[in-house]
Amino acid sequence: MKDFLDFAEYLDKLLSDSKPLWGEMTAQHMVEHLILAVQSSNGKKVFDKCMNSEERYPILKRFLLSERPLPKGFVNTIIGEGLKPLKHKDLNEAKEKLIMELSNFYNYYEDEPSAKPMNVTFGPLEKGEWITFHNKHFTHHFTQFGLMRE
User: Fold this and answer.
1) Going by C-beta distance under 8 Å and a sequence separation of 6 or more, which residues neighbour residue 63?
2) How does pLDDT run along the chain (150 residues), one tens digit per residue?
3) pTM for this prediction
């Protein structure tokens, strides 16, 4: 998984009682949120619409590819507000699932190299754009939990 930031060292620091610096997610909610994002890029969770119009995709992709961080407190209208019910028995199980889904990401693109799954904020993304998104998204949430500095 050489394309992704070295997230494992940050995940190791995340504990079940880790508190966010902003927002209402628990550590496990955050990891499960990342799982959903990775699944939307590896063919496991298909979204057929984006919260933004197709006309905005070029502007959004410029932001995605920039050095600017994701905004704090952003609410995706497709996913919705509020905490979602937890799907895994504990944080460690969720972390293992996240690592598995990242591995599935690479397997997916071996089988579907030209795939462009829908990102619910940025529109359809190809593999390299998804890697950029995941790095930015993971950095955002690892910063949220004080695991990384902005």
Assistant:
1) none
2) 446 667 888 999 999 999 999 999 999 999 999 999 999 999 999 999 999 999 999 999 999 999 999 999 877 766 777 889 999 999 999 999 999 999 999 999 999 999 999 999 999 999 999 999 999 999 999 999 999 987
3) 0.93
